[in-house]
Amino acid sequence: MPPDRIVSACVLIIGNEILSGRTQDVNLAHIANELNEQGIQVREARVIPDAEDEIVAAINECRQKFDYVFTTGGIGPTHDDITADCVAKAFGVPLYIHPEIESLIREREAPPEIMASRLRMARVPEGAELVRNPSGPPGFQVENVYVMAGIPRVMQQMLEAALPSLRGAAPVRSRTVTAFVTESQVAKPLSELQDRLPHIDIGSYPFSRDGRFGTSLVARGTDESELDALSRQLRELITAAGGELTD
After folding, report:
1. Which of 148, 179, 183, 238 has the fewest Cβ atoms nearer than 10 Å?
2. DSSP helix/strand/coil, 7
3. Is 234 within 8 Å of 217 (Cβ atoms)?
4. Same-domain status, 44 and 90
5. pLDDT for 46
6. Structural domain of 211
């Protein structure tokens, strides 16, 4: 993969419990960090409800727009776990009971009604590849869409299993310069610097500490030597604006 090629990803966080505030998502940060080390940049993330039309539309839009799509949530045993159904509909293929997953689930005996619920987790779209899960039923992959559990520990295991199949470019690195300086003091020279370096993402993040206002300037890019040089420029920019460096 050429080093300047951006390999992009989108994360679709599926679940009414996230939107209601009952459950707080912790998966996005983990996915973004792990993918970045593979040279894959998460360029968009969405939280969507357990609604078939919305999930199908999001999958179809994002799989065309991004190199990879990762979904979390909605592959459990209950009626509102509809992600597998939606992925199958998005790709226009039927669902079927995967024999390997069925065998795994049947290893634990259960009354017929409970077993029937568990076997919902064995349904995968035709043509899907499994995404291994050492602690239970796997997720699956259809083309560039990876479908994973919402439970953080399980999702992390699935993502770890999926990583070797992903092709990325250069990972994004960052440099941070922190100072007691307001954003307005550095806004103009910072904007000019960003215009000169459009391939590097430069952000400013204000804070308040000990009754004083400050700003952290963060530069993100793939060339570490260029980031080091930019870090020096940011320090000079802050000093020229009358700021006080804190690091």
Report:
1. 183
2. strand
3. yes
4. yes
5. 97
6. 173-245
Instruction: Count Cβ atoms below 10 Å from residue 129 Cβ, excluding itself.
Output: 14
Helix 224-240 vs helix 183-196: crossing angle, to nearest 10: 140
pLDDT for 67 beyond 70 = yes
| Residue 211 confidence (pLDDT) above 60 | yes
Residue ranges of E strands in 49-144: 68-72, 95-97, 123-125, 129-131, 139-142
Same-domain check for residues 158 and 230 = no
Question: Which residues, including other chains, have CB under 8 Å from residue 219's CB and lie 6 or more apart?
Answer: 174, 175, 176, 200, 201, 202, 227, 230, 231, 234
pLDDT, tens digit (0-9, with 9 covering 90-100), for 136-161 = 899 999 999 999 999 999 999 999 99
Q: Copy the structure tokens of residue 26.
A: 């912790």
Residues 31, 151: one domain?
yes
The domain that holds 49 is classified in CATH as 3.40.980.10
